[in-house]
Amino acid sequence: MQELIENNILQPAMPTCWNEASKPHKFCPGCGHGVILKALGEAVDELGLRDRIVFGCDIGCSLLAWDFFDFDTVQTHHGRTTPVITGMKRAKPEIAGIAYMGDGGGYAIGSQHLFNAAVRNEKITVIVCNNSNYGMTGGQMSPTSLPGMKTETSPYGRDILQTGAPTKGPEMVAAVAPEGAYVARGTVANVRQLKGFIKKALENQLAGNGFSFVEALSGCPTNWRTNAKQTWEFIEKDMTQYFKVGELRPLQAKEG
Ligand SMILES: Cc1ncc(C[n+]2csc(CCOP(=O)(O)OP(=O)(O)O)c2C)c(N)n1
Ligand code: SF4
Questions:
Q1: 27 Cβ closer than 6 Å to some ligand 2 atom
Q2: Quick one: a GO biological-process term for this protein (predicted)?
Q3: pTM, 2 dp
């Protein structure tokens, strides 16, 4: 990627698979969705996959990515992006299918699809943006809201005796996915590492090895009501304490 200088300001170049006409993008300032989609765009560019991608975005703030990329995109019903991309991949095995959603789409309304796709070892890549709340609908408690976290629907803090503990998506996927699956958790606080995880997830899918899953810890400053410093602190200190970053099911070395 080349960097440009415009008006004496260094401008990092956009991934070539981004749709320039839709920029500036529609996410709130400081939102992590744009960072995750930058890591995804760079991964697609580096792997030369642009013409093979079918990208599905969920209901939730991920739907704001419906025109984000210059590749085939489908916007699905809430929680249904995983089965839509599964169907496309089964019909056209040569594509690289990516299902992109929030933690509500992945771990609440779409959880049965996610975990059953993992059990079946579907050859698709699922990326979940974990921002600890339902962003699009105004900041309600989600499966990944932290213990004690104040949200619109847990104004006194999440009580895990009432609601259960926060969902650990990658740990759950890793527990049920057969051999060949790739599972990792990255964070928008380490974009290079996140891009590496996404690249491996795409490579694993294209090698036909199995289900490929990446969760990305992300920020929602609008609903968290945080400034830039507080947003990063919440991701780096609070979220990573509960949600451990790293590879849970690494790429398996090829035999022979
Ligand atoms: C079947 C259905 N149920 C509920 C909704 C309302 N709804 C829209 S987005 C959303 C939650 C989005 O949160 P998340 O999936 O975590 O994504 P985020 O917006 O945080 O990125 C909900 C509950 C809906 N659109 N459709
Ligand atoms: S509401 Fe939150 S998740 Fe949605 S675009 Fe704004 S900052 Fe991002």
A1: yes
A2: cellular respiration
A3: 0.96
- The model's pLDDT over 38-94, given as tens digits with 9 standing for 90+, comes to 999 999 999 999 999 999 999 999 999 999 999 999 999 999 999 999 999 999 999
Domain presence at residue 13: no
The answer to whether position 17 is within a domain reads no
Is residue 117 within 8 A of residue 86, CB to CB? The reply is: yes
Domain that holds residue 191: 25-249
The reply to whether 143 falls in a domain is yes
Is ligand 2 within 6 A of the CB of residue 28?
A: yes
Is 188 close to ligand 2, i.e. is its CB under 6 Å away? no
CB 149 within 8 A of CB 141: yes
Do residues 99 and 126 make contact, with C-beta atoms less than 8 angstroms apart?
yes
Instruction: Give me ligand 1 centre to Cα 35, in Å.
Output: 20
How many structural domains comprise the chain?
A: 1
Strands (E), the chain: 3-6, 9-12, 53-57, 72-75, 96-102, 125-130, 133-134, 140-141, 182-187, 212-217, 246-249
Does residue 133 belong to any structural domain of this protein?
yes
Residue 149 sits in a domain whose CATH number is 3.40.50.970
